[in-house]
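Re: weekly structure request thread

Next one in the queue (308 aa):
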Amino acid sequence: MSELSVNHLLGIKYLTKKDIQLIFETADHFKEVINRSIKKVPTLRDITIANIFFENSTRTKLSFELAEKRLSADIINFSASQSSVKKGETLIDTVNNILSMKVDMVVLRHPNPGAGIFLAKHVKAAIVNAGDGAHEHPTQALLDSYSIREKLGTVAGKNVLIVGDILHSRVALSNIFALKLQGANIKVCGPRTLLPKYIESLGVSVETDLRKALEWCDVANMLRVQSERMDISYFPTTREYTQQFGLNKALLQELDKEIVVMHPGPINRGVEITSDVADSGQSIILGQVENGVAIRMAVIYLLASKIK
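Done, posted below.
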């Protein structure tokens, strides 16, 4: 039985190529399970998982919860907005209180980069990073790569374009790490103000002309502008952003090939992507959502098998 090289999923940068292959092979198995009439397996009946979310999230939280239920784990849900954190309790105290209820694994979403890494050093439980600030979102990157593999047969050698707010996006960073590990070529496209200065040092090329970038790519992953992380304005108006970096049907039809369109959600329809693209045959956005459950089942199962 193969196993992961890590005891926690803190970020893609701690995984090996073999880890990613193992997660994908395990997800293939679970994808069959969730498409059966009985969608549950008793695999994790003895495992208790706490979902601890210090930031709002609908899709990621639901996806993890569903993955845990499909594996028959016991679940505790914790939302910081209704908790003692508001009274000044620290992250470690909060988690230790939850762990004293004999919890085996923590799925953590936190606004501070590195929160999961910090926690993994201080508590006895497997930690899954469900997004830490603008740092990493490893399960999103895994499901994105898995969706590309499912659609195109492989990730290696494919030209993947990431468009939009790269500066504030944990999805972009995790995707870059995951795609590089698997041998894809990566370009980023967006306003210069939303591209980190160090981006090219990650082995990624930059293109500020969306049309040129689309002509190059096999896959376009459209990110939303993360207004909630911005304390200043990074571009003049939303309308101007959409004119330069929004993906619409006319642009797709001008290309001499059919590209795959992705989006991690939530979608700002009419800003980074128009409805007729999001709902088109070239879009695999809903496939990503389905794959998210299978990938999270795989990650939880593989980490749980390492809990002593």
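The chain has two domains: 12-136+289-304, 138-284. The beta strands are 48-53, 74-79, 105-110, 126-132, 159-163, 185-189, 205-206, 219-222, 260-262.
Next request, please.
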